[in-house]
Design goal:
This protein is rod-shaped. It has a two-stranded antiparallel ribbon with strand order 1-2. The protein contains 12 helices and 2 strands; from the N terminus they run ββαααααααααααα. β1 and β2 form a beta hairpin. It folds into 2 domains: 93 residues, no CATH class; 121 residues, no CATH class. By secondary structure, it is an all-alpha fold.
């Protein structure tokens, strides 16, 4: 008998397996071994760290550098004017950034000192000194703290000019100095807290800079010494000068010369009295 018999009577061919071993071999044959797929090893932890570092570097390059960081970098490089300008530009967009205000103000002060503002004052070049302050105000116009410093420095420049133009032997020149003196003291009274704050900040700026510290100390001493002189002059002379003006204005022509001469004997150092006497003799206003 054949091992496999195919029936021809059936509409559908039916296969008869006469040998049991063939049946078992057909359904329980050993499966063919599938080809092994080479496994892909996972990246090591060193690779992940490297990828993370590269990603962070890429993000850092994409993110814009902060205004504070740019300003601090310029400050550390001694580029004070550029630092103040950068701070001012960013403050035009965010005027409430206190960090930028402080950085910009410090940079502006250091720039003024390093470009010789005090040398201009010492040499009587007050117009040049004021031009420098005008420039400082320009690149600090969005920085309220910086503008306060500019105002303080303008007051210092005006006071220094007042004493620079005076003769040492002449306390005051009547009809000239007393107006400037009163103006300086009025401005001091209005802005004294700001001026004192400026010197406190100047001391802090120069804490680790010997050259700047010397400048800060010398400037503070001379300014407050000058302020003392203004106050003494105002106390001892201005009141009497104002009384003299009133007395001369109200007196008859014959009495004016006597009043002026009496004042001259009391205050021999006051300038302008001679011119006042001459003008009165001619019937002119001094």
């Amino acid at each position: 008998m054949a091992d496999i018999q195919i029936s021809e009577d059936n509409e559908n061919n039916i296969v008869f397996i006469n040998k049991p071993s063939l049946f078992l071999d057909s359904f329980y044959s050993v499966p063919h071994a599938e080809p092994e797929i080479e496994s892909i090893s996972k990246p090591s932890w060193r690779v992940w760290i490297l990828l993370t570092i590269l990603l962070m570097i890429g993000i850092w390059k994409i993110i814009p550098e902060s205004a504070e960081h740019r300003s601090e970098h310029l400050m550390s490089q001694g580029q004070y004017r550029e630092c103040a300008a950068v701070a001012n530009q960013d403050l035009s967009l965010n005027s409430n950034n206190q960090t930028l205000r402080e950085i910009g103000t410090e940079a502006m002060v250091k720039d003024i000192l390093h470009v010789g503002w005090l040398d201009k004052i010492d040499n009587g070049q007050f117009d040049d000194a004021r031009i420098m302050l005008t420039e400082a105000a320009e690149f600090s116009r969005h920085n309220p703290e910086g503008m306060k410093v500019v105002r303080a420095l303008n007051w210092i420049a005006d006071m220094e000019e007042y004493f620079y133009q005076k003769k040492p032997e002449t306390p005051l020149v009547i009809f000239q100095d007393e107006k400037r003196l009163k103006s300086l003291l009025r401005r001091w009274k209005k802005d004294k807290d700001n001026i004192r704050d400026f010197f406190c900040s100047l001391t802090a700026y120069s804490h680790e800079d010997t050259w700047n510290k010397d400048i800060a100390d010398q400037l503070q001493v001379r300014v407050f010494r000058g302020l003392d002189k203004l106050q003494i002059q105002n106390l001892f002379y201005v009141g009497d000068i104002e009384e003299l003006k009133k007395a001369v204005e109200l007196a008859s022509k014959s009495d004016r010369i006597k009043i002026i001469e009496q004042f001259k004997r009391r205050f021999p150092g006051i300038g302008g009295l001679e011119a006042m006497s001459q003008s009165d003799k001619k019937g002119e206003q001094p």
